[in-house]
Design a protein that fits this description.
This protein is α/β, with parallel strands linked by helices and 180 residues long. The protein has one domain: Rossmann fold (3-Layer(aba) Sandwich). The protein contains 4 helices and 9 strands. The chain has a 6-stranded mixed sheet, with helices on both faces. α3 links the parallel β5 and β6. α1 packs across α2. It binds 1-O-pyrophosphono-5-O-phosphono-alpha-D-ribofuranose and magnesium ion. Magnesium ion (MG) binds next to loops.
Length: 180
């Protein structure tokens, strides 16, 4: 285990099994359709690349970068688009792919954006849900695991851009961010 972690919450095998299960669910729910999966960079990059391999209906992929945490463990509250989609979502069945829903601010912003851009349908899939962090009332349509009220890293999730490459997910020791 990485020395900056307090403990591991989900090992690689557990994550992969859940992603496979979520892919199978999406394949059933989107039978006969060609959904557009939108990966919210950077956090969701690892989840997205594993998830699409587990979906067996035709899909398309696009990417969007959003940032509100920066170098902090607390949301700045200001959601900014750093990089936008390549193609319009109008008339598409959109699936927003996120790593975590915490305050819900990112997701509320994204869902409103997709509705404004006239997507035919918008669903949210997030690997992790942290209900204790919620500031706006929004829930993912699909999620993998509920996580405790702690800052987690690994499998795409970062603190100040670090730890995204860990193949497992764990709780970051609080002295790592308390001391900067
Ligand atoms: O529900 P919220 O409180 O809005 O938090 C969730 C969002 O915050 C993180 O992104 P971040 O802004 O850290 O960008 P990153 O994915 O590039 O790390 C995470 O990847 C989600 O997109
Ligand atoms: Mg981040």
């Amino acid at each position: 285990m990485h020395p900056d972690l307090e403990r591991i919450l989900f090992d690689e095998e557990t994550l992969q099994a859940k992603v496979a299960e979520m892919g199978a669910t999406l394949s059933r729910d989107y039978a006969g359709k060609t959904p557009l999966l939108i990966c919210i960079l950077k956090g969701a990059a690892l989840f997205m690349s594993d998830l699409v391999k587990r979906i067996d209906v035709p899909i398309e992929m696009d990417f969007m970068a959003i940032s509100s945490y920066g170098q902090s463990t607390k949301s700045s509250g200001a959601v900014r688009i750093l990089y936008d989609l390549e193609r319009p979502v109008e008339g598409r069945d959109v699936i927003i792919v996120e790593d975590i829903v915490d305050t819900g601010l990112t997701l509320a912003y994204l869902r409103d954006t997709m509705i404004r851009r006239q997507a035919a349908s918008v669903k949210i899939v997030s690997l992790f849900d942290k209900p204790s962090g919620r500031k706006v009332d929004i829930q993912p349509d699909y999620f993998g695991f509920t996580v405790p009220d702690a800052f987690i890293v690994g499998y795409g999730l970062d603190y100040a851009e670090r730890y995204r490459n860990l193949p497992y997910v764990g709780i970051l020791k609080s002295d790592i961010y308390a001391t900067g």
